[in-house]
Design a protein that fits this description.
The protein is of the alpha/beta class. The chain is built from seven helices and 15 strands. It has an eight-stranded mixed sheet. A seven-stranded mixed sheet has the order 7-8-9-10-11-12-13. It starts with a strand and ends with a strand.
């Protein structure tokens, strides 16, 4: 299983950067996790859009789903159906996406296991202003957990249990993080991951902040746009 970092910033991008979007690929499956601004252009560096098996939207904030509104035009022009997994909610965003006839909407149900070709998916509800699901993915060899956006909460234990690699929303520098901030801080992530068996990667990078020193102090690693990882029981390997 490979993880392509198409974009990793939020809630808005710096120059030439994309917002949240990650391609998970095996020999048989290609699934997009989140689809923020700039992601579709980056995705086509690696695959054609018609190769996508599904898109998973962890939640419906624009920095995680805005490019799905452009993807609908591609699907309409190509007369292509696309499976879109997302939380069901009473919102303008949900109504707009679900009204697209070329999207096959699958409402995420926590506790239910889903399968897309050779990938198994489990969803765990997180804590965020919009309904948000973390997702755990396995191809039978490695296990990836992606938190989406969340505050520190007990369900993280359910999400990360058995994971080899955790992609975690925690790029807020501790000096600007407040208790009401709907994301985790770097310090919270480091404390949470301490003595746990999984490898941790930091994402949802905040614009115009320098987290280099705190990352080094806490012993954390962050993702960069363009990174490609191979995920296995050993955690991950950064590919050239």
């Amino acid at each position: 299983m490979k993880l392509y970092v198409l974009g990793c910033m939020g809630p808005y991008p710096e120059k030439d950067k994309a917002l949240s979007g990650y391609l998970v690929e095996t020999n048989n499956a290609k699934v997009l996790l989140d689809c923020g601004n700039g992601v579709l252009a980056r995705l086509q560096k690696y695959i054609d859009l018609n190769e996508l098996d599904a898109v998973i939207l962890t939640h419906l904030h624009a920095d995680h789903m805005s490019d799905i509104l452009v993807m609908r035009y591609y699907c309409a022009v190509q007369n292509q159906k696309l499976d879109v997994y997302m939380p069901q909610e009473d919102s303008l965003e949900y109504n707009l996406i679900s009204s697209e006839p070329n999207f096959n909407i699958i409402n995420i149900e926590p506790g239910k296991q889903y399968r897309i070709k050779d990938l198994n998916f489990d969803f765990v509800e997180m804590v965020h202003p919009k309904k948000c699901f973390g997702v755990k993915i396995t191809d039978g060899q490695g296990v990836l957990a992606y938190t989406g956006d969340t505050m520190l909460n007990p369900n993280l234990d359910v999400l990360t249990n058995g994971a080899d690699l955790v992609l975690m929303d925690c790029a807020f520098p501790s000096v600007i993080h407040k208790p009401e901030t709907p994301h985790m801080s770097l310090a919270q992530a480091a404390q949470y991951a301490k003595n746990k068996p999984f490898k941790l990667l930091v994402t949802h990078i905040i614009p115009k902040t320098d987290i280099t020193n705190e990352l080094k102090k806490l012993g954390l690693e962050r993702v960069f746009q363009g990174d490609i990882y191979e995920i296995s029981a050993q955690g991950f390997k950064l590919l050239d």
